[in-house]
């Protein structure tokens, strides 16, 4: 199975990295891109150029799609919808859980076997041990084409509901952007006293590495519903201390806009009588739907 022919639709930064990984792993790789010139380097490396989407889809039992968004996926696949029956489609384009479910239904109506995917990597990480891809949707596509998928990154199958991969992809990115927000604020704050970012960076990295250890403890509290278990720093204390963060930003002439939203949430939770608990209880305030 390691030599299953694969088609890649979309040769942006990510699609090119995926196609290159498949070529390196010895798959006959057919490529198509709206702007045809982007295929040239890959063709020089051994890829086969498809002149049309129809030709590309017909070339391989597995079609990997990596386009800008789901609108571009529909624009690309709609004209060849009649030719998708029996084809395994692995759509690694980023989108929302709802979009993935709708795409899976669209594919099923056309007889295609649909696997959704969320790439947890940037292009240079593809085919390195650091990269992983979340998959959900057709188990049979995942199992049949596992060798080709594993050539891209470490593969994680999450279940038959196509929404599961984009949901968890977006959850991971949400965690990342929360962290990036804090990092940017921290650099703005230290920069307000002329401290070079490079001088402060090692300490920030050390602190974030150590604080990432909180994830497992929060998870245990959230799953048990007991936010008072294993509390090291209670919420009432944290809510009071958080004021210092906002005050210091103000004093240093740094906008608090990235940090500000957490303050009122903490205060509300304390006012509701949960000051002795941990920060993890804030998830109850974030879930606006049961
Ligand atoms: N790059 C990353 O770090 C990264 C990481 C994880 C996930 N992703 C996801 O991977 C997907 C591709 O990202 P990328 O970095 O390759 O983006 P990109 O470099 O901007 O490439 C976008 C691709 O989509 C094509 N495209 C856009 N609109 C189209 C349309 N209407 N019809 C047909 N093709 C269309 C482009 O074709 P043209 O060349 O003709 O414009 C190009 O092949 C995105 O969903 C992205 O969120 C990217």
Automatic annotation (TrEMBL):
Pfam families on file: NAD_binding_2, RedAm-like_C
Record keywords: Oxidoreductase
Gene3D superfamilies: N-(1-d-carboxylethyl)-l-norvaline Dehydrogenase, domain 2 (1.10.1040.10), NAD(P)-binding Rossmann-like Domain (3.40.50.720)
Domain NADPH-dependent reductive aminase-like C-terminal: 161-287
Molecular function, one GO term: NADP binding
UniProt xrefs under InterPro entries: 6PGD_dom2, 6PGDH_NADP-bd, HIBADH-related, HIBADH-related_NP60_sf, NAD(P)-bd_dom_sf, RedAm-like_C
6-phosphogluconate dehydrogenase NADP-binding domain residues: 6-156
Tagged with keyword Oxidoreductase: yes
Family per similarity comment: Belongs to the HIBADH-related family.
Protein name as annotated: Secreted dehydrogenase
Biological source species: Streptomyces sparsogenes DSM 40356
